[in-house]
C-alpha cells in the first residue's frame, strides 16, 4: 500500500470512492488474501493426504495424537479428525488474515517492502519466545500459539480464543485507521 501512496493511486481512489470505502476494501482484500495464502495450501495438503490415506479414527490408547483429550475440541480429534482439521484450517485462515492486516497497518510507518514482509514473522517469533517463555501462565491468549493444532502447553478455551482474536483484530483496525488518517493530503503535496 505504501507504493499506492507514493505513486498517487491511493489519492485517486480516495477522491473517487471516499476514504472509508477505500480503506475498508484494502483491509478486506488484505485479510482475505492473507487468509487464503495460509488456508489453501493447508487444505490442498489435507485433501492430498486424504486421497492416499483414509481417515482412520485415532485411538487414544495408542498415543497416535499429540492433542490431549482435555484440550479445546480435543474429543473431536478422536471422533471426527476431519472436522478438527477443518476447524484448525479455519483458525489458521483467520490468523493469516490478521498477520496480513498487521503488514498493511504498518505500511505508513515503513517504506521498505522487505521489512513489511518480515515484520509479522518477527512479531510472531517475539510473541512465541517472549510470552511463551517469560509469562507461560497466559499461553492461552498468545496469538502465536493458538494456530498450532496440537495445543501443547496451553489451556485454550473458547473465551481465550475469542478474546485473543477480537483483541488482535481491534488493535490492528485502530492502528490501520490511525495510520491512514488524512494521509492523502500530506502525501500529495497539497499542503506545501
TrEMBL record:
<keyword id="KW-0472">Membrane</keyword>
<keyword id="KW-1133">Transmembrane helix</keyword>
<feature type="transmembrane region" description="Helical">
    <location>
        <begin position="113"/>
        <end position="131"/>
    </location>
</feature>
<keyword id="KW-0812">Transmembrane</keyword>
<feature type="transmembrane region" description="Helical">
    <location>
        <begin position="85"/>
        <end position="106"/>
    </location>
</feature>
<feature type="transmembrane region" description="Helical">
    <location>
        <begin position="156"/>
        <end position="178"/>
    </location>
</feature>
<feature type="transmembrane region" description="Helical">
    <location>
        <begin position="28"/>
        <end position="57"/>
    </location>
</feature>
<protein>
    <recommendedName>
        <fullName>ABC-2 family transporter protein</fullName>
    </recommendedName>
</protein>
